[in-house]
Amino acid sequence: MTTITTRTVEYPADGLTMIGHLALPPGTDRRPAVLLGPEGMGLSDVERRRADALAELGYVALAFDIHGGRYLGDPEEMLARCLPLLDDPDRMRGIGHAALDVLRAEPRTDPDRIAAVGYGTGGAIALELGRDGVGLRAIGTVNALTTGRPDETARIRCPVWAGVGSEDPIMPPAQRDAFTAEMQAAGVDWRLVVYGGALHAFHHPPVDHPVVPGVGYHPRHAQRAWHDVVDLLAECLPVTE
């Protein structure tokens, strides 16, 4: 029985040495690929398992790093790094492009068939790659209803799917409205799913350290959001074309 293979990849970005997790499906042929971004705490086994699951579905998957190999379990430390990052589209794009270059350089990757999926900060980075005009097949985000610089959203050339919890205080209704208005004005093919009763980071299993207020796991919606992401990929980036 053939199985997926995984390996750690190191690459420079944002003045740091990033440590990503690459998962490859069985075989030797080129496959569509997914760039997978983590929540603001950073790359963890949660994202590594998701990359592995995507490889089992037939995708090359790179779970990318945003903190130079560190996982920021202290909410104050996480916010001190992530808030300035989220306010700097060029830094986010630099982190995204560095990871994208690694994914494209993988011999198993079909460089013309790549999607970006991200959670929280990782989702914001995925959106900035789209706003930078990267030729992605799809962008999927959870908890990442970030808005961009004027006129750049029109450079997104693929469908955008976004998921958010209805009770997320970090992505409140006003933020949802600003995001969807931006997508609509730019002519983007967009979808927004609001998961009833869910908080911020509802997709992420409970952690053994403090979190910012408004964060909470919702196992049923976490499963639904994952299925929605897989459906997005099946529609826009099928394993076989």
TrEMBL record:
Top-level taxon in the UniProt lineage: Bacteria
InterPro entries (UniProt xref): AB_hydrolase_fold (IPR029058), Dienelactn_hydro (IPR002925), FrsA_esterase (IPR050261)
Keyword Oxidoreductase: no
Record-annotated Dienelactone hydrolase domain positions: 20-235
Gene Ontology molecular function, alphabetical: hydrolase activity
Keyword line: Hydrolase
Protein family membership: Belongs to the AB hydrolase superfamily.
Entries under PANTHER family matching the protein: DIENELACTONE HYDROLASE DOMAIN-CONTAINING PROTEIN, DIENELACTONE HYDROLASE DOMAIN-CONTAINING PROTEIN-RELATED
Protein name: Dienelactone hydrolase family protein
Organism, scientific name: Streptomyces morookaense
